Amino acid sequence: MKQWLLLFAAMLVSSTTANAAGVNLAWDNCLGGGGVAHKTFACNSNSGISAFVVSFRAPAGLGSWDQIYAEILFQSAATTLPDWWRLRNETGQTGQCRNGSVGANTLIAGATGCVDPWNNLSAGGVGYYLAGDGAPNRARLLLGAGIPAGDPLIEETEYFAYRGFINNAKTVGLGSCAGCSEGMCIVANWVEIADSPAPPLHLSAPAEQNFIVWQGGDAACPGATPRRNETWGSIKSLYR
To answer: Which of 43, 51, 107, 148 has the least CB density, counted as fewest CB within 10 Å?
Structure first.
């Protein structure tokens, strides 16, 4: 079982690991294209989205592949996950205040500074978003997609994996959900690249930066503990 102490220690020294195989996360763009770590929102509109990009630097020896998965961890500065961050109904998790407000796809959509490995051939997106996962103030997002056959990946090149988004529905007015202004730390915990049926290649170290911050929530970043990683089999079964 991973310890968040190790995860956040790696996160805090991520600036020293430039151009190494690993995971990147940034708001608005690929990290290599000028994506940023911090985002603020006035919480005054129900329209618009905040987009983030998951990318990775490829390790050596990646030839054929057909699947990429990613796990994103959310931790609020509040003691419980705010209603504004209860983003999706799941089996056993219904009545979430902002159901339908998280999404992801593999369309690079103008992101720059990284290479698109999908070539518009992929299918997939959000596997699940679990509120209160591991602790009352946390959530976990699983992303997964597949492709018939991907081109070989070049070592240390930054590749686009996913564009995720959080929309602004139910931020203000009747039926709004409280907590938009609460600080949040969001971490790309890992990316896995696989060539089915072989086991995946697991990347968990930051390449340059594997975390982003919402509403100045830097204080939410240190000292949390995620649940165990899912087994490869259980992840893969979600997308069959």
So the answer is: 148
